[in-house]
Amino acid sequence: MGQSYAKEALTVIRLDVIGTRQSAERAAAESLKRLMEEFWIGIEEDPDSDVRILVDINCPGQRVEDIDIVVLAVFAKPREIIIPALDDGTELGRFLLGSLCAVIEVKGHRRDSVKFDGDRLCVRYDDDWHDATRQSGQQAPSLVHHLERRGVTPPYVYKFIWLRNVSQEEMAQGRSANNPLPHNLLFSDSSMGSLLTSVWIQWQAKHPNTQVLYGDKLLIGSDRHTRTPADLNGISQTLTGQKMTLLPARATSVVRAEYRSHPGRLHSNASKNQHSRGRTGLSFVSLVRSSPVLLFLTLVIVGSSLIGIQRLLAWIRPAVQTSRQSSLELAPFEGKYKCYRKSETYVLTIGREGDRLYAGSVKGRIELLPVHGNEFRGAQDLGGSRGTFAFNRNAKGKVVSLTINGGAGQKSVCQPLE
């Protein structure tokens, strides 16, 4: 097709190295290949897998023209990924991987040439500091626009920065517990599991209310982010001149998900009460269920006009107090949580005062009002965290994760900090 746009000789790795060009990016690609071989034992002989690591991709005319590494992966039979477990052996989650497209910016700087400016990672060239976070953020849209200009439906692109000569421990030194490292950073001691955990976190944040399923398991794929599936074969031919003969595993169902007292339990809104819906879209069952709410709202309106806000609050407060959980029941929720929302990482502190539960971060502090069991709602907004706070507990009652569904459709996935 004559559609190879890499500078000089393009190196393609199908878990084999093709080409002889030597560079820091080539060395990084070979290291990534070894991490994949360790993580996916036997993948180089798997007829249902096609993984390619592309080095030095050129996107002419785009804001970022040179991309160090592009990862293209297709799994006809999806690979099951287990998110690294906590110290007590409890899994944080698992998913099936159908396809993956990721761009990786490779940095060979030492620790003294890397710093954070707020949440942005900067690296030093001579006496100048360059914003690596901004550069990485521009790579994905550059690749997407490059593909679109050539008539190819693009995928969803995950982006990473790989600090090849800095360990995670080195980078974390001097940072407080309230300021954890961004999850899309890779280090000299990172594993393939670290990259895939970040993929899971980004997917959860991007699709807070939608679950794409393969059978009964969550399916993540870069090819399924719009109504039109990405053309991974066309992407490979555009970037490398080589075909990808496999098609990624396709979803068997897509459901709108809501998390109730158990965040891991999925409820499909689409299948509820279809037989009883009238023209208004309201079912008889839902109308009956909403009657107590309507009655309460009526009392609030009438009460406000008759006795005033202050007296009304005094009248409501005893009822609210009776629904509060005891101090001992709230104790398991206390602690610090590392939360991920899109590319943002922050620490949330859950604490109690008597029979009240509070959530606090650098953006402020709010009270969490009990809804049911392990689920609470924020009394006010906390930087996009107003909504439901659903704690997921194991069989021993220990909290293993926290899911925050924000009022504006934003979703955070949080892990307890030991």
Describe the structure.
The chain is an alpha+beta fold. 26% of the residues lie in helices and 34% in strands. The chain has seven helices and 22 strands. The protein has helices at 24-39, 132-149, 168-172, 192-206, 232-240, 284-323, 327-330, and strands at residues 11-13, 17-18, 49-58, 66-82, 94-107, 114-117, 120-125, 128-131, 158-163, 185-186, 210-214, 217-221, 253-258, 267-268, 335-341, 344-353, 356-361, 364-372, 375-378, 387-393, 399-406, 411-416. The strands form three sheets. Strands 1, 2, 3, 4, 5, 9, 10, 11, 12, 13 and 14 form an eleven-stranded mixed sheet that branches. Mean pLDDT is 78; it is low at 1-9, 16-20, 259-290 and 304-323.
Portion of residues in helices?
Answer: 25-40%
Gyration radius from CA atoms, angstroms: 25 Å
Strand content: 25-35%
Structural class: alpha+beta
Q: Largest sheet at a glance? A: 11 strands, mixed
Describe the global form: globular
| H-E string | EEHEEEEEEHEHEHEEHEEHHEEEEEEEE
Report the end-to-end length measured between terminal Cα atoms: 54 Å
Overall pLDDT:
78
Count of DSSP helices? 7
What's the number of extended β-strand segments? 22
Uncertain segments of ≥5 residues (pLDDT<50)? Answer: 1-9, 16-20, 259-290, 304-323
